[in-house]
Protein 1
Amino acid sequence: MDMPSLTIGSHTARLPIIQGGMAVRISMAPLAGAVAAAGGVGLIAGSGLGVDELVSEIRAARDRAAGGVLGVNIMVAVTKFRELVRAAMAEGIDLVVAGAGFSRDVFAWGREFGVPVVPIVGSARVARLAEKFGASAVIVEGFEAGGHLGTDRPMLELLPEIVAAVQIPVIGAGGVATGADIKRVLDLGAAGVQMGSRFAATVESSAPEAFKRMYVEARDEDIVLIKSPVGLPGRALRNPFWERTQRGDYPQIERCRACLKECHKEYCIINELEMAQRGDVTDGLVFAGSVAARITDVPTVADLMKRLESEWRIAMQGEDR
Ligand SMILES: Cc1cc2nc3c(=O)[nH]c(=O)nc-3n(C[C@H](O)[C@H](O)[C@H](O)COP(=O)(O)O)c2cc1C
């Protein structure tokens, strides 16, 4: 028994698994390329990168992807959204995922370059709007997810409403770490899943060792919400930086790079995410989903994908009995 494949636009991945884009510099060419080569959809996170860096990551990922499906994830909230999306499209990326906000323009660019656009949505209303504007699929991200959160509802509750609201493929994101989780999401009518945290703790992820170790050691009580200057809450791991923010003690912004279209400027989120990516998991911001509490190892992407397939098979057989 094989897992169903996932088709978005004219691209088909052998497995219905998208590796979520993770900024800043967590999901880069090594991770996205390995996921695509293993049969999933690999996403490079473009938010916080310059155009040249994004283009070189796309080329490096292509070299590793063995012809698999590769996309970019760019947050609508970033100032360089237009520049980054159009550069990725001109480079021949297979698909573009747009998170943290809604853009009408991105669908027009998708038509211009012939690239499928997949927005991240948190309600049936926005999913319908995305379909009307020309989305090739939508990703429904629930409250369990790591990173910025656009809803306070769990994915498994939101998913059936969105599956009923649109004709395009719907992908469930948030709280998925195992093959049994994947089966639960597909059973509700999803065409696939998007997983972030599970892939952040793999060998090919560009997160530093200390970041991956925090995931492996995290317990339920270590998973917290944090106010993001983007204007949305974010899900992260408890650390001294988070403790500081709870006292209203935010690190001063030393140099504003005007990276967000709208920033509440409590602290510099790009700086905090970059610090964590460089290995400072004490003073940096470590985004993580609630599934971090269930992650106990750092496998290679190839091993993880095999494990997900076999767990999915066991869950399917359990149902047959
Ligand atoms: C470290 C980290 C960084 C993330 N960065 C982004 C991002 O740049 N853009 C985005 O749309 N989603 C981002 N996400 C969300 C993921 O793409 C994905 O949807 C989410 O992690 C799914 O939930 P899960 O962590 O429970 O699998 C991030 C998640 C994590 C854990």
Protein 2
Amino acid sequence: MEITLAQALSRRRTVRAFAEQAIPQRTLKQLIWAAQGTTGENGERTAPSAHALYPLRLFVLASRVSGLDSGLYAVEPAGLDLKITGRADLRPDLCKAAIGNPEWIADAACIIVICGDMATPAQAFAEQRPYGARGERYVYLEAGAVAQNIQLQAVAEELGSVLVGGFSDEATADVLGLAAPLVPLALMCVGYADVEI
Ligand SMILES: Cc1cc2nc3c(=O)[nH]c(=O)nc-3n(C[C@H](O)[C@H](O)[C@H](O)COP(=O)(O)O)c2cc1C
């Protein structure tokens, strides 16, 4: 069933209880497209980016995605292809790295991890006030736009989601094998809702 943007906005709610049902791989691809899909001839994307630097990187922790092995995947920025980086079940350690050990991290069908390259924008906007902070601020703004895109696309796909931003940066980066300048910014936990939305 197609819904309008206004309907998606009205129905967007944080969901923290997920059903066992797997999500189709096609649906995961659609969420990733909503996050960072290329939509313009000059590489423009679904979400805006300051100076079109595109400093965000996505990873997917797949647990119940039909047709996709469980594991951690890096999303290739150009074609949005998924490249497996490990098959270990990282959910327990990711839960521990988050504030309050939230069980929705373990229960989600998949988690789209929004990460930012904090160095490139910091350098590019070094001459703009507040010196040293402007580039970083832009990365956070961009991550917010991407998070909203994912949540709205999730609604359109009849899925629920929660943006988890409360976690130890260091412990989360460690679990996911991220190295500087990449920093984890948001964990978008997605799945079929186990509650009335
Ligand atoms: C920046 C940010 C960080 C958040 N971090 C968490 C989090 O760590 N854990 C969580 O359960 N929800 C988190 N949320 C979800 C909020 O709690 C939720 O959006 C809020 O309660 C409003 O509910 P709604 O999204 O249904 O409108 C976060 C939301 C935002 C925007």
Protein 3
Amino acid sequence: MTNIKVLIESLSNKQSEALDRIQSCNNLNDLRQIRSKYFGKESEISKILSNIRDIKDDSEKKQIGEYSNKLKNILEIEISKQENILKNIEINKDLDKSIDISLEKYTNNIGSLHPITQMIDKIVEVFGYFGFSVASGPEIETDWFCFQALNLNINHPARDMQDTFYIKENHILPRTHTSSVQIRTMLKEKPPIRIIAPGRVYRNENQDQRHTFMFYQYEGLVIDKTTNISDLKSILTTALRNIFDNSDIELRLRHSYFPYTEPSFEIDATCMLCLGKGCNVCSNKGWLELLGGGMVHPQVLRNVDIDPNIYQGFAFGGGPERLLMVKNMIEDTRLFYENDLKFLSQFRKI
Ligand SMILES: [Zn+2]
């Protein structure tokens, strides 16, 4: 006859043994084996419980049944707790293996304006202080607006300085300079005129450190009755001092030739790095060439029905890229167009 006390004692011993094994188990395979050892058909607990049928007393049968169910529940809970612990350990081990310390820290990257756009905004802002309004025009121009109205007739040799992608039909072309905007403005508006015209222009250039087939220009135009070279120099000096945030900058006008201005000048600014003493950046000249300009040619005024006996004006133009390159000591203009975020993010405004 099976003694219930012996059965319960055997089950209790198995419970302590199983709990010890489950809690000290350190891998999922072993845990699976422990589960089958204590719960499988051939398990030790099953063998003990198979003796229940020999118990005649129903209340004792019930008692041992309840005890064995409780034991099963305790062990199941313990196995599932240990299973979770071991699974988490394995997941963390996999994560440790997959960490790539060369990866950059993830940050929320916020976009910013392109440095050329930022410089154009600055130019517009600074010339705005002098009452210049922004003017714009089409990038595809006719020969007349781009050349003839600016005193560059069909066979003018100076056209070679601005070789572009020319479409013979209809005499249209990508504009080579933003000067065409000056013509369009003078035809549309009566003097006094005071505009700044930034925009893209196109030339047939070999791509190198200083040339790209597309680049930006900003051009200014002032037409009034008493406008003179002194005004040109003084406005540009103040504007460049503001753009470069350097009050020591002076300007130097060197005689040059442009078909649409007379007299014409190359306009140099004091080298901001050596303040005129001479350095590598300015090739020891102490000056940096930044713009071109001059007094508007009387023939250009006549072409747009402005009487040069009453009005005169000056015009100037340069490249925002050139200002950025000088300001930030950048040697290759192509960097602005390669969309390399490592380069562009240096100009991010915070
Ligand atoms: Zn210098």
Protein 4
Amino acid sequence: MKILIYGNPVLRKKAPKIKIIDRDIILLSERMFKKIEKNIPKGIGLAATQVGYNISLFVYEIDDDKGVIINPEILSKKGKEVAEEGCLSVPGVYGPVERAEEIVVKALDIKGKKIEMRLDGLKARVFQHETDHLNGILFTDYINDINNLSVEEGFEIPEKLLERLKVS
Ligand SMILES: [Zn+2]
């Protein structure tokens, strides 16, 4: 399982909803957890589209809180907050993104049970970031000034992102 990197067209697809949660989906989510746990730095969220599966699913792991989220829909947003974000598909690149402070999300869990959650803090941010992935949106889409990006040593801003920032 490989994480697709910025510029890969699959990252721009809008993921269709999952109709049946079968064994393949369960196995995929287990592999995705392994992927974020092994990553350095450890990931806190990963969308199926980032590993080449165009389906509406993401996993998250924030300390001891982990889960599989299927067909997420953000029902409402409240407040605004800016914080630094990064993404496994844009390795080593970080930048400030404005997100809603509080959200209400509707989804299915891995057993197919309907869930509705009111979230805030980091979890709300992760859910917005990952739901964006399933709509073909990357956190860098919110950044229009190259000076707002910070790049870790040994990493580079992807060519395609550089091109966009130069013309905007
Ligand atoms: Zn991401």
